[in-house]
Amino acid sequence: MFEVIESRVWKHTSGRTASIYGACPWVAQSDAPNWQIVTRGWTVRNPHTGEVGACRPPFATKEEAQAFAERVQPSRSGYGD
C-alpha cells in the first residue's frame, strides 16, 4: 500500500516553488534565506520504488490521500522502467 506523506516544496518569497527532491533551489548563498520548505497538502510514496507523487496535484486532505492509497495498488517498477 502507498504511504501517505505531506506534500512539501521549497517556496521563495516571490512565490516561486521548487521540488525538495531536486537540486538546491538557490544559486547564491545570499539567496538562501529567501527559500523555505512549506507544506501544500498530502501525497503518496511508493514503498517499492521510493517514488513520491501520484501524477496529480497534491490532495487537499490526509483523508483524500489515504482513500487513494487504499484504492490504488502501487507499482513494483519505477515510472521509467
Question: What does this 3D model show about the protein?
Answer:
With 81 residues, the chain is of the alpha+beta class. It has one helix at residues 62-71; strands at 3-12, 17-19, 35-45. It has one domain (3-23, 34-71). It contains one helix and three strands. A three-stranded antiparallel sheet has the order 2-1-3, covered by helices on one side.
Question: What is this structure's SSE topology?
Answer:
Layout: E1 3-12, E2 17-19, E3 35-45, H1 62-71
Antiparallel strand pairs: 1-2, 1-3
Helices and strands, in order, run as: EEEH
Can you summarize the main beta sheet? 3 strands, antiparallel
How large is the share of residues in beta strands? 25-35%
How many domain modules?
1
**Number of separate helices:** 1
User: Reading side by side through the largest sheet, how are the strands ordered?
Assistant: 2-1-3
Q: Assign a percent range to the helix content.
A: 10-25%
Global shape: elongated
Class by alpha and beta content: alpha+beta
**What's the average pLDDT?**
94
Q: Got a strand count?
A: 3
Poorly predicted tracts of residues = none
* C-alpha Rg (nearest Å): 15 Å
